[in-house]
Amino acid sequence: MNTPKETALEQRAIEGAKMYSPSVARNRDVIRDAFLRTMPQEGRLLEIGAGTGEHAAHIASALPKLQWFTGDPDETARASIAAWIADMKLDNLHGPHALDVTAKDWDGALAAPYDAVLSINMIHIAPFEAAQGLFAGAGRLLRSSGKLFLYGPFSREGVHTAPSNEAFDESLKSRDPRWGVRDLDRELVPLANENSLALEEVVEMPANNLSVIFRKN
Ligand SMILES: C[S@@+](CC[C@H](N)C(=O)[O-])C[C@H]1O[C@@H](n2cnc3c(N)ncnc32)[C@H](O)[C@@H]1O
User: Fold this and answer.
1) Which of 67, 110, 111, 72 is nearest to 90 (CA)?
2) In sequence order, what E strands does 30-131 have?
3) Residue 192 domain-assigned?
4) Contact 84/52 with Cβ under 8 angstroms?
5) Ligand 1, closest atom to CA 101?
6) Is the shortest distance between the CB of 47 and ligand 1 below 6 Å?
7) What is the CB neighbour count within 10 angstroms for residue 157?
């Protein structure tokens, strides 16, 4: 295993095409447990912006009745996802797709409905158009009572929940002014409501992150 140039916001180890994310190693169990407690355990799930593919491999291996469709618009990420899928040999883990939620009608070719949509650590490391595209697509793709699961840092009512999140927001914006920690109450809940989704649950996670679950009306 060697260490490639920095990708995104961390140094990832790489073995063949398979990438290992240090942040996934830290948070994959708590995210899986929040998912298991709040999300559908069977049916079909679409994952957006899967990065290395490790969350998909980890959670899908715990839920054999959930058909998990994963992918990422980034080619290197897709190679890693494909390698994880090949390694895991799970009947319920599929992909990688190359869906970019900022593309017009990005979900148009998918066979709706889905029971769940999930995106981990994506909408703050992308322009706000990615959040808009994700919610619009989730609104179209999810069946009634289907759920959207987001994980990451969020501010609440216009206020950062911790100094570390404020510093992270500043560092994101210094990399790209279109990036930044999103406000759950002022930006995302209105966006969800415009797309027939309602906030269902907010789960406090380690390191001032949240898992946020929306339900399709
Ligand atoms: C910080 S990484 C997180 C990866 C993984 N979900 C995790 O938590 O380890 C953000 C990912 O979102 C993807 N992404 C960025 N913009 C996107 C978009 N418009 N549509 C879909 N994925 C996007 C990037 O390619 C990247 O792999």
Assistant:
1) 67
2) 43-47, 66-71, 93-97, 114-120
3) yes
4) yes
5) 20
6) no
7) 8
Question: What CATH number corresponds to the domain at position 58?
Answer: 3.40.50.150
Q: Rounded to the nearest whole angstrom, what is the distance from the C-alpha of residue 176 to the centroid of ligand 1?
A: 15
In a domain, 17, yes or no: no
What would the pLDDT profile of 177-209 be if each residue is shown by its tens digit? 999 999 999 999 999 999 999 999 999 999 999
Q: In sequence order, what are the beta bridge partners of 96? A: none
Distance between terminal CA atoms of the chain?
A: 46
Q: Is residue 7 part of a domain?
A: no
What's the domain count of the chain?
Answer: 1
Determine whether the shortest distance from the Cβ of 209 to ligand 1 is under 6 A: no
pTM for the model stands at 0.95
3 state SS of 163: helix
Mutate which of 48, 55, 72 for ligand 1 pocket (most atoms within 8 A of beta carbon): 72
The Cα 118–Cα 205 span in angstroms is 16
**Does ligand 1 come within 6 angstroms of the Cβ of 48?**
yes
Question: Does residue 16 belong to any structural domain of this protein?
Answer: no
Q: Which domain holds residue 169?
A: 23-216
Read off the pLDDT of residues 88-140 as tens digits, 9 standing for 90 and up: 999 999 999 999 999 999 999 999 999 999 999 999 999 999 999 999 999 99
Q: Amino acid identity of 24?
A: V
